[in-house]
Amino acid sequence: MKPEDIEPFFAVLAAANPQPRSELEYTSVFELLAAVLLSAQTTDAGVNKATRRLFAEAPTPGAMLALGREGLEQRIRTIGLYRSKAAHLLATCRILVEQHGGEVPRERAALERLPGVGRKTANVVLNVAFGEPTMAVDTHVFRVANRTGLAPGRNPLEVEQALLRRVPERYLRDAHHWLILHGRYVCTARSPHCSTCAVSAWCDYAASTIGAGSAAAD
Predict the structure, then answer these.
(1) How far is it, in rounded angstroms, from Cα 201 to Cα 84?
(2) Which among 71, 72, 77, 181 could bridge 86 via Cys, Cβ 3.0 to 4.6 Å?
(3) Which residue in 5, 44, 49, 138 is the catalytic one?
C-alpha cells in the first residue's frame, strides 16, 4: 500500500463506521479488562455469553475474589482455557485490590504486570477505556495489516510499530477497531470478500488478485 493510499483507505472505513466500538460487553474499566483477558483464543460472542452472568454477580475485583477459584471456573467454563484464565483473573483481581485500591491502572507498565495481561490486552484497555492512540494487534489486525500492505510485519510488535508510523493521527484512536472489524467480517482468513470490499482499491492483495484474474482472462 502506497503512502498516499492510507488516507482514503481509512476515510472509507471511518465513513462506514464513524464510532466503532469493541464487540465485548462491559460497563466499567474493570469489566473491560476482565473481558479482554478472557477473550484470548475465544470469540467475543463466547465471552459475552459467559460474562453477562459473571459481571452481574461480580462487577468489581473484590466481588470476583469472593467467588473463589471454583466459583469463577464454574461461571466461565464455556470459555476456552477457562482454568488458566480463572487463575490469571483472580491473581489480577488480588493485585488490583492490594496495590491499586481496586482500580485498573492506566499506565502500560502497571497493566502488563498483571497476570494474563500482555501487550495486546494492555493496548485494548489503554485505547478503549482511556482513549490512548494505541494499536492492539490481534490475529485480525495482523492479517489485514500484512495482506493489504498497510503495515507489514513479521510479528505483532512489528505490525504495531508500523501502524503507529503509518496511520494518520486523526485515525489513530479508532484504527484498531476498524481493522479488527474489517478482518473479522470482510478480510477473512479464508476466502476474503475482495469483490465486495469497500477498500479494495487501495489493497495490495486485492490488486494482485484482480491482476491475476485479468491475466488469466486474457
Answers:
(1) 43
(2) 72
(3) 138
| C-alpha pair distances (Å), 96 with each of 7, 92, 125, 127, 144 | 40, 6, 15, 19, 34
pLDDT digits (tens, 9 = 90+) for 34-91: 999 999 889 999 999 999 999 999 999 999 999 999 999 999 999 999 999 999 999 9
CA 114 to chain centre: 18
CATH number of 3-20+135-217: 1.10.1670.10
Q: 138 an active-site residue?
A: yes
CATH class as words, domain 29-129: mainly alpha
| Span 79-137, pLDDT tens digits | 999 999 999 999 999 999 999 999 999 999 999 999 999 999 999 999 999 999 999 99
Q: Do domains 3-20+135-217 and 29-129 have the same CATH topology?
A: no
> Can you spell out the DSSP letters for 43-68?
-HHHHHHHHHHHHHH--SHHHHHHHH
Whole-angstrom distance, CA of residue 91 vs CA of residue 100? 13
218 catalytic residue (yes or no): no
Catalytic pick among 2, 49, 85, 120? 120
